[in-house]
Amino acid sequence: MSQTDYPMGTRPGRIDVDTTVVTPTDRVRWGAVFAGLFAALSTMALLSVLGLAIGFSSVDAGDQAANFGIGAGIWGAIVALAAFFFGGWMAAKTAAVGGNTNGVLQGVMVWMVAIALLLYLIAGGIGALFRTAGSVATTSAQVAGDAATVASNDPDVRERVDPAAATQAVTAEVKETVSAIKETITPQRVENVAETVGGAAWGTLISMVLGLGAAALGGFLGARTPIATRERRS
Known about the structure:
Layout: E1 17-20, H1 30-57, H2 65-94, H3 100-152, H4 155-160, H5 163-184, H6 187-222, E2 230-233
Antiparallel strand pairs: 1-2
Helix pairs in contact: 1-2, 1-3, 2-3, 2-6, 3-6
């Protein structure tokens, strides 16, 4: 019916319609979490390469190595905080569920998944290192065994080498090595090592907590306004 079909004075005015908007009920949105995770990893890689470029470009022959270590540590902390903040912000901004609380949750989930992935990579690297060391040791033992077999079958070698003297020399060398190791392990050195390891552990804990806070803050600031369950439209 066109506007001209309405009788005079009976044209309808504003019509209010109630529309129900369905929102997800689960708060953890894995698509948004993985988006934030990849955003954090990409940011971390980008800033790390930037730090390497700046650091190597400013190398001076008279600089001390300790200064580079301190600068690298500070830049690494900044990179981690910025990456987790951006990852939390991205996860909250792309999540289907809005609200500050849900935004913080998405940011925290990004941090959790990143820490689990980091632990997996570290464990895999340590396992590969031990496997490589074991393979090298096995190969060395086989080579030594083959050399000993060849030497024992050579009459000239048997005449020049006294097995008893060789065994005594090896035993004496092993005893000297063990004695040197025992002398180096003193209570003071053990305490120093414990203090160093304890300080590294506390530093790692503080950095992890700061990363968690940065991810939560990014999620809080990136949270969208919650979608109303009922919206009035005209």
